[in-house]
């Protein structure tokens, strides 16, 4: 890892820090999604730990237990809840940044996501689709007629 050049070494002061700040702001959306996924996993893990702590706590049913034990468990529980709130805030920031990055994208129709292979290798056009639809309709009609004949026999 190389060190950044000093401000007096041929670059104007603040030029490098500006590009670093811009690079930090322009984070890949896929990386943000991965960070969000890891954050959700951390939230689930912390929540499981909170439930584990609560399950192990005894109810004060006339039983006296040490104040130090109570204080220790309460401190652990509060720490887990604090960490959980921090993780939720982090997840919200990631969510907002992902929405911001994807705001300018046009939604892609589902039909375009399905790969289409043509027999002749030419580009797909409306005339080809219409002829294929007509061919498929005729083929369906013929199959229905054959089915009727076989049912009658």
From TrEMBL:
It is found in: Nucleus. One of its GO terms (molecular function) is transcription coregulator activity. The keyword Transcription regulation applies. GO terms for biological process: positive regulation of DNA-templated transcription. It comes from the Eukaryota. Keywords: Activator, Nucleus, Transcription, Transcription regulation. GO terms for cellular component: mediator complex. The keyword Transcription regulation applies. InterPro entries: Mediator_Med30_met. Component of the Mediator complex, a coactivator involved in the regulated transcription of nearly all RNA polymerase II-dependent genes. Mediator functions as a bridge to convey information from gene-specific regulatory proteins to the basal RNA polymerase II transcription machinery. Mediator is recruited to promoters by direct interactions with regulatory proteins and serves as a scaffold for the assembly of a functional preinitiation complex with RNA polymerase II and the general transcription factors. Belongs to the Mediator complex subunit 30 family. This is Mediator of RNA polymerase II transcription subunit 30. The gene is Med30.
């Amino acid at each position: 890892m190389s060190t950044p050049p000093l401000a007096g070494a041929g670059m104007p002061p603040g030029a490098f820090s500006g590009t670093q700040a811009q690079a930090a702001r322009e984070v890949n959306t896929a990386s943000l999604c991965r960070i969000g996924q890891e954050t959700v996993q951390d939230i689930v893990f912390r929540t499981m730990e909170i439930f584990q702590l609560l399950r192990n706590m005894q109810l004060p049913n006339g039983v006296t237990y040490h104040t130090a034990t109570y204080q220790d468990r309460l401190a652990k529980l509060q720490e887990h809840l604090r960490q959980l709130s921090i993780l939720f805030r982090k997840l919200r920031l990631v969510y907002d940044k992902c929405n911001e990055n994807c705001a300018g994208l046009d939604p892609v129709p589902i039909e375009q996501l399905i790969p289409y292979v043509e027999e002749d290798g030419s580009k797909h056009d409306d005339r080809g689709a219409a002829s294929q639809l007509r061919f498929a309709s005729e083929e369906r009609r013929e199959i229905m007629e054959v089915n009727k004949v076989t049912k009658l026999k």
